[in-house]
């Protein structure tokens, strides 16, 4: 007898891939992702027009680009979600080595676009940010290593994955990109926690991260400036944070009205890092709560479905991807309301950005793949298949 996770599913002989995909996909999560992208396009019509005007481009130039990259992201997401977990694992491991190599070559071949941090490759018509693509595949290889450690006679996967984490975080910090480095640590810790890490060990890792943060504060002017600004009791109203807080306050419950906001004409990053300020000003708290609810629904739904998953790799990888998506959204929203220091991080599927959209398409495609309805062998069969007698 076979138990079925997330409800009954019948495997029909000769059934088309698309038909089976539609029956087994989590339509709730898929719908929430579509709504997030729709909200991003709606806000793009407001936030990107001032940017286009400053650059002497047609008013909706960046909206069209966001729609184009969003279309590419959804193709990647749907294609990835149709794959088997084994295929996703293989491609993720291969992709990690390419993304890691691209990250390591940034100091020599990358550009900073005048922002003081070398994070991009400029290809003329598009810029690529390797860290965006590195995050989901890092989750895959970490989950694979930790899952292999649970097998009889398996390698020390947890220790190896920790070593990989140190290397990745070091290269991110050299850019410098402390926000992405911290996000990577949080996601890895989520995988390690699900894999059964002792709380004391995670606490020790947190203390080490804090110590590294102190060292970075004393040796990095870029990092120290952001921390000092966050800790200051007063907010300079002429800074991005000051303008964002004023916009959120002005929006109130229902907002000032469509296209009535002023912050998008002032903030240079209104279409990316501070897109939520535009949403709060023009559409009010109602829109902000709607966006938060969508991210919350995706996180809870995915974790709920992964709780009954008996394949160790799928459970760990799915949990890590969920933590990564949720943490990035939390950081972006937290920065906008001054709960966290400024980190220069996009809001998934809502902010403008080609690399961010396509990388998020890959991440959510993997997540949809891992949460698809599939037969779950009885626990006794699962243990026997892993060598337990």
TrEMBL record:
It is a multi-pass membrane protein. Its EC number is 2.4.99.28. This is Probable peptidoglycan glycosyltransferase FtsW. The keyword Cell cycle applies. Its main location: membrane. It comes from Jannaschia helgolandensis. Keywords: Cell cycle, Cell division, Cell shape, Glycosyltransferase, Membrane, Peptidoglycan synthesis, Transferase, Transmembrane, Transmembrane helix. GO terms for biological process: cell division; peptidoglycan biosynthetic process; regulation of cell shape. One of its GO terms (cellular component) is cell division site. GO terms for molecular function: lipid-linked peptidoglycan transporter activity; peptidoglycan glycosyltransferase activity. Belongs to the SEDS family. FtsW subfamily. The keyword Metal-binding does not apply. The chain crosses the membrane at residues 29-49, 61-79, 91-110, 156-174, 186-217, 283-304, 316-337, 349-370. It is found in: Membrane. It catalyses: [GlcNAc-(1->4)-Mur2Ac(oyl-L-Ala-gamma-D-Glu-L-Lys-D-Ala-D-Ala)](n)-di-trans,octa-cis-undecaprenyl diphosphate + beta-D-GlcNAc-(1->4)-Mur2Ac(oyl-L-Ala-gamma-D-Glu-L-Lys-D-Ala-D-Ala)-di-trans,octa-cis-undecaprenyl diphosphate = [GlcNAc-(1->4)-Mur2Ac(oyl-L-Ala-gamma-D-Glu-L-Lys-D-Ala-D-Ala)](n+1)-di-trans,octa-cis-undecaprenyl diphosphate + di-trans,octa-cis-undecaprenyl diphosphate + H(+). Signal peptide: none annotated. It comes from the Bacteria.
